[in-house]
Specification:
This protein has 238 residues and is an alpha/beta fold. The protein has one domain: Alpha-Beta Complex (2-enoyl-CoA Hydratase, Chain A, domain 1). The protein has eleven helices and ten strands. The longest helix has 19 residues. 39% of the residues are buried.
Length: 238
């Protein structure tokens, strides 16, 4: 895979984004969904950690170098299929029958921060990297489904403040708000903490997946029913 590398440490899968800023484009969505299906088919796997090998970035969100030319050239079907593809990725994470842990090693902006929020648990660097929703400054409104699953990851008052201000928030501040389980001072301790936490899980997939299905039923409904009209009309900019 061009954008991702899949490895295992014991019975924990590690999915590493490996394309620098790890921007989201059609290939990223396709590879991410394929990787999740591969991990799910591995019956010995007990948990998944998603991280990045870039020194500065976890993920900076949508690939504007792809999106802007696509919009200018009116490649509407390509853009729609990308948006549906990312919705499929988010739904796959929300319904994944294993614990999904984001090890946020650097900046998580926009769709990159949203990707982390789709995971079950988050760990982050305390010494570097910011978590940010810059959409308010880019004239990009959140899709309804995104709002719903970000709200399950952080207190509403913090999401409200971050979404409306576009402020960059550190791992330490997110730890205080319990958005991340813990913030670490080094890359080594971040990965060690995320992996150690992943190894505490040994749940039966059936019940774990059913819990997530019932917990996130309203989110899936919103993605399937409220995102679609906005994607079809390409109401992606304000």
């Amino acid at each position: 895979m061009q954008n991702l590398a899949l490895t295992y440490t014991g019975d924990v899968a590690i999915l590493t984004m490996q394309n620098g800023e790890n921007r989201h484009n059609p290939l990223f969505a396709k590879e991410m969904l394929s990787a999740l299906n591969t991990i799910k088919s591995n019956e010995s796997c007990k948990a998944l950690v998603i991280t990045s090998n870039d020194e500065k970035c976890f993920s900076l969100g949508i690939d504007t170098d792809w999106l802007m030319p696509a919009m200018k050239a009116a490649r509407t079907e390509e853009i729609k299929q990308f948006m549906y593809g990312m919705d499929d990725v988010f739904k796959a994470l929300l319904l994944f029958p294993l614990p999904v842990i984001a090890a946020i090693n650097g900046h998580a902006f926009g769709n990159g921060a949203i990707l982390a929020c789709a995971c079950d648990f988050r760990f982050m660097r305390a010494d570097k990297g910011f978590f940010c929703f810059p959409e308010v400054d880019l004239s990009i409104p959140f899709l309804p489904g995104m709002i719903e699953f970000v709200k399950k990851a952080m207190p509403y008052y913090r999401f409200n403040e971050m979404k409306l201000s576009g402020r960059r928030v550190s791992g330490k501040e997110l730890e205080q708000d319990h958005v991340v389980e813990k913030a670490y001072d080094t890359q080594e301790s971040l990965m060690e903490g995320a992996l150690n936490y992943a190894k505490t899980f040994d749940k039966k997939r059936g019940i774990f997946g059913e819990h997530k299905k019932r917990l996130h039923k309203h989110i899936i409904h919103t993605i399937d029913n409220e995102n679609k009209p906005l994607i079809e009309s390409l109401s992606l900019m304000a």
